[in-house]
Specification:
Blueprint lengths: L2 H7 L3 E5 L1 H7 L15 H6 L4 E7 L8 H18 L3 E3 L3 H9 L3 E8 L8 H9 L2 E5 L22 H13 L2 E3 L5 H10 L5 E2 L16 H9 L3 E4 L3 H4 L4 H15 L4 E3 L20 H9 L4 H20 L2
Parallel strand pairs: 1-2, 2-4, 3-4, 4-5, 5-6, 7-8, 8-9
The structure holds zinc ion.
Zinc ion binds next to loops.
């Protein structure tokens, strides 16, 4: 099987994109193919993506009005979903498999930054009811739940953050550890039994950066059965090229094994051009690169999506 055939046949899952921000602001109509940004529905299909995680990102600017902000992002997503039958919101792995078999794109909703709930655990239930199935406690800044990667305020996870995690696990919402400070990370890992996901983080051992994960952190994620989605953002890969992304995939595979590596492009969350991975339509190049480097097709399928689906199934329970 050649690279393109393998890519088309595999279930491809991207764990993180910021595209909904542009949908909400009206910057772009993602129903139409364009050269702007990284993701629109035609390019998702060209790129062979079966399931796209759409992050509902609440910027710290909205602190105190997080729930209103995330609700508007959800409204924008729902308008798109209702107008366009190429996109289907999903809340189970069975649905992802069914949607992908019909050539449509499964949309998984995630919240980026727990400030979205304005400190009220009941808001988590409201987000769950609208389909949210994954959430990160913070963005880069600290909030009332935990410290983020670039701001130490509490010394890790707060008691409220612990209560939020307990409710997330009770509902079946995947805990995303990307963007946490290192102390927050270890606190979270101490309070979650079962897998977590770092949706869009790379290896600090290869590219030292506060947003990347140390080898110890990677091994801890592996221990819980979780996955790390490789981020394509050049600041986190060490260079604007597919080659740099592949180097991170191989580093993560060496530290964690092939069962714990996934994709988390961060598409539409950065503006630099990545050589050979200019937008989502170029994703088959990543599969070709892994084949060229001697990775077995079964391992490539895991990295492209099967590992992410394993964690979703485990946390969502279906
Ligand atoms: Zn992010």
């Amino acid at each position: 099987m050649n690279a393109l055939a393998l890519h088309r046949d595999a279930t491809v899952v991207d764990l993180h994109s910021d595209t909904i921000l542009e949908v909400e602001s009206g910057t772009r109509d993602i129903a139409v193919r364009s050269a702007a940004g990284h993701i629109d529905l035609p390019r998702l299909r060209e790129g062979g993506v079966d399931a796209q995680v759409f992050a509902l990102f609440v910027h710290p600017h909205f602190t105190g009005q997080g729930f209103g902000r995330v609700s508007r992002l959800l409204d924008a997503f729902e308008r798109l979903d209702q107008q366009d039958d190429r996109l289907v919101r999903v809340t189970s792995v069975a649905e992802i498999e069914r949607v992908s078999r019909t050539g449509r794109i499964a949309a998984v909703l995630a919240v980026e930054n727990g400030s979205a709930i304005d400190g009220d655990v009941a808001n988590l239930d409201r987000l769950y009811a609208r389909g949210v199935r994954m959430m990160s406690l913070t963005w880069n800044n600290s909030n009332d739940l935990a410290d983020g990667a670039v701001e130490e305020r509490h010394g890790g996870l707060t008691p409220l953050g612990g209560a939020v995690i307990a409710r997330m696990l009770g509902l079946g919402i995947v805990v995303d550890v990307s963007h946490l400070s290192e102390r927050s990370f270890w606190d979270v890992m101490g309070s979650v039994r079962g897998p977590v996901v770092a949706t869009h983080s790379n290896a600090a051992g290869l590219t030292p950066h506060r947003r990347n994960l140390t080898d110890d952190q990677l091994r801890e994620i592996k221990k819980g059965g979780g996955v790390v989605g490789v981020n394509f953002y050049p600041s986190f890969t060490g260079g604007p090229s597919l080659r740099a992304v592949l180097a991170h995939i191989e580093y993560l595979v060496n530290v964690m094994g092939t069962d714990h590596v996934a994709l988390g492009s961060d598409f539409d969350g950065f503006s630099q051009a990545v050589e050979d991975l200019e937008d989502v339509s170029k994703l088959p190049n990543l599969t070709a690169g892994l084949i060229e480097r001697g990775h077995a097709p079964a391992d490539i399928r895991k990295i492209l999506g099967a590992n992410a689906l394993r964690v979703f199934r485990q946390v969502w329970g279906r």
